[in-house]
Design goal:
This protein is mainly α and about 200 residues long. About 70% of the residues lie in helices and about 0% in strands. It starts with a helix and ends with a helix.
Length: about 200
């Protein structure tokens, strides 16, 4: 998730009142009911989800510490804040250094929920959706209340669902079977006429 302050369009360190006002303004702007029968409906729905997640995160952090504790990275939960090893792996992931992140994960002996989550993020960045899904599911089973893990799982389910639906549509259906039969006939006909 990107910086929740940026999502709400406010500066870092904003007060609770500023966060609430920005949230209300963004909800009015992107509410899907406002975009019914509009091609931007799905985009508005996705944006509203981001706004709600950003608001929830900031309000949770405000309540926990009396002030904002967003750290500017992608680390919102789990062990990343307590473990510099995982924090470095997250920085490697953010910078696109997948090989370094993967090597650091392999060296780590701490196979906690955060390890599986980060392993899933490496797989996701490489385009290995099934492996990413498996690792994030393992992280959630170890830490079921982690907001970041659950948010990522929801995103993965949407992404892999679209990926699988598109892939099934490109497989061998009745039209492609007919095309294969036509090609076979043409090849056979070509062989027969060459004699």
């Amino acid at each position: 998730m990107q910086n929740p302050y940026e999502v709400l369009g406010i500066k870092e360190g904003a007060s609770v009142e500023e966060i609430k006002a920005a949230y209300r303004e963004q909800v009015k702007k992107y509410h899907p009911d406002k975009h019914q029968d509009n091609p931007l409906y799905e985009l508005a729905e996705e944006k509203l989800r981001e706004i709600n997640e950003a608001y929830d995160l900031l309000m949770k952090n405000q309540g926990a510490s009396g002030g904002s504790s967003y750290n500017g990275g992608t680390s919102y939960g789990g062990n990343a804040g307590r473990n510099s090893e995982f924090a470095q792996i997250r920085r490697d992931l953010d910078a696109g250094r997948l090989d370094q992140a993967e090597q650091a994960l392999e060296r780590s002996r701490n196979r906690c929920a955060e390890w599986f989550y980060l392993r899933g993020m490496v797989s996701l960045r490489r385009g290995w959706y099934d492996d990413a899904l498996t690792n994030v599911q393992t992280a959630i089973s170890m830490d079921p209340n982690n907001y970041e893990y659950n948010n990522t799982m929801n995103m993965l389910m949407r992404t892999t669902g679209n990926y699988r639906n598109a892939a099934y549509g490109r497989g061998y259906d009745s039209r492609s079977d007919e095309m294969c039969r036509m090609c076979q006939c043409l090849i056979c006909l070509d062989c027969l006429t060459d004699c």
